[in-house]
Specification:
9-stranded mixed beta sheet; Rossmann fold; alpha/beta; about 290 residues; 10 helices; binds S-adenosylmethionine
Length: about 290
């Protein structure tokens, strides 16, 4: 299987992973994405129609196949932020609260950090970290487009390598989100150049750096604090296998937390949202509470 490359290799690799589910899963990955529009609390914008809401999502929102590009309203801020419904779930899992010390380790462009900021109401500390300087500027841009400066006083943007943060700090944060860089197969499948270059070594290499980041996330979290790991990968090497490796290498230092989300299905260590059954995702998340 290691010799398989390009579109045929991709098909065989994911076919073996998802078995009989793969043809419909692959077809669903090629469909246009639906969106959730999360209303900006700093804009007075309201949808003309009755919004379609997903139960359990604590942000006023509306769901549709397509939305007009967000617009600045008279208050001076964008009216809504568009995202995949499943991308909201890591923030539901993290439940950041006013006054907590929260880190979003791989934060750019900043959608999940923005939702954290809405929940934290400018109290405590919210750090949006990203190693890429170009992508960090997108975090600043999004925050300025959606929040008054006076509502960003608890927000800091940093530039650490997430896998090395633990060398400088330990046992500091109440909540840590690791929305890790991943294989993002939906994008690979949509891009002929990307899929031509695909090889199984890619997901294996990404998984190595994801695990290093997760181990670092565990170290920087306070005992009793929460870590949420998420990806938009299909590859199980980057999802449950990462949590299995954490159990093997750091077992006893944390407990796995199980939680249900508005759409999707449980997995061995977490929760997965796949587009063949839900129309959302792909998305995976798992959450743990640090013990020591
Ligand atoms: C999946 S994206 C994050 C999406 C983001 N959480 C959001 O909701 O908008 C992954 C991000 O990780 C960043 N990244 C990659 N390697 C990193 C590292 N070692 N340390 C910190 N950030 C990293 C990338 O620049 C990229 O912006």
């Amino acid at each position: 299987m290691n010799n398989l490359k390009g579109p045929d290799g991709f098909d065989q690799f994911y076919g073996e992973m998802f078995k009989g589910r793969w043809p419909s899963l692959k077809a669903s990955l090629l469909l246009p994405k639906k969106h959730v529009a999360i209303l900006n609390p700093f804009s007075k914008f309201k949808f003309p129609e009755e919004p379609i809401q997903m139960t359990g999502v604590p942000f006023p929102h509306h769901i549709a196949d397509a939305f007009p590009h967000p617009e600045i309203t008279e208050e001076g801020y964008f009216n809504y932020y568009l995202m995949d419904a499943a991308s909201i779930f890591p923030v539901l899992a993290l439940e950041p609260k006013a006054g907590e010390r929260v880190v979003d380790l791989c934060a750019a462009p900043g959608g999940k950090s923005l939702l954290c900021a809405f929940l934290m109401k400018n109290e405590g500390l919210l750090i949006s970290n990203d190693r890429s300087s170009a992508r960090r500027s997108r975090i600043h841009k999004i925050f300025d487009e959606y929040l008054p400066k006076t509502q960003q006083k608890n927000h800091k943007v940093t530039a650490h390598d997430a896998s090395k943060w633990c060398l400088y700090e330990k046992n500091v944060y109440d909540k840590v989100l690791l929305d890790a860089p991943c294989s993002s197969e939906r994008h690979v499948l949509a891009d002929p150049k990307e899929i031509a270059l695909w090889a199984p070594g890619r997901t294996k290499a990404i998984a190595v750096s994801q695990f290093a980041m997760l181990a670092s996330a565990l170290d920087i979290t306070k005992p009793g604090g929460l870590i949420v790991y998420s990806t938009c990968a299909l590859s199980q090497l980057e999802n449950d296998d990462i949590m299995r490796k954490l159990e093997q290498k750091r077992g006893g230092r944390y407990e796995l937390i199980r939680k249900e989300f508005p759409v999707g299905e449980p997995t061995e260590f977490g929760w997965q949202v796949l587009p063949d059954t839900t129309g959302w995702g792909p998305f995976y998340l798992s959450m743990v509470r640090k013990i020591k």
